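Section 3.1: Structural characterization of target chains.
Under the original work plan, the team committed to producing a structural model for every single-chain target entering the pipeline before any wet-lab resources were allocated. The record below documents one such target. The sequence was received from the expression subgroup and is listed exactly as submitted; it comprises 200 residues.
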Amino acid sequence: MITIISSIIIFLLVILIHEFGHFIVAKMNGVSVLEFSIGMGPKLFQKESNGTLYSLRLLPVGGYCQLEGEDEENDSPNSLNNQSPFVRLKVILAGAIMNFILAFILLILLMSVSRVSTEVSGVLENSPAYSSGIQVGDKIVSINGQMLEDGEQVLESIKKSKGDLDIVLLRNEKSKNIKVTPRLENNNRKIGVNFQEEYN
């Protein structure tokens, strides 16, 4: 249920940002916006301001921005079809550009609240980790006595290490010591594990 609600919200956000791109660029260039709607279907609320009807509709599955002269010829100087090719192009492309901006902002936000944990999410077959008995779900606590807080630190510690690794990990809440001999790949020392990404 949560997944369905989240999907609807994300879909609504993407559509609204897209349509808002058309809306704001049209307004900035003197193109008449007849209606800006949030949602689809029967109207729940509407208000007119500066020649534009703003409406909230029953079904939260998107929205739309209706421009004057968008679908048919119109003699009004403020209609889309009577604008210069450059203005029409800006209005048309604004939706896609806003979606790119949204994706970039969401990526930045995601990176700011996420980190790679020390929990092993995958072990490559025939790798040093596989041979030493490291399993999916293990949490690496330290390497060669150095306490580690995230997966990036684990990988960096392996990369900079020399010789065998004395790894302390947690498995089913119990501490376990494992010795691993890294393998040299592309001039980097690796043991063949992936880590779980988590969000704050």
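The chain has a mean pLDDT of 88.
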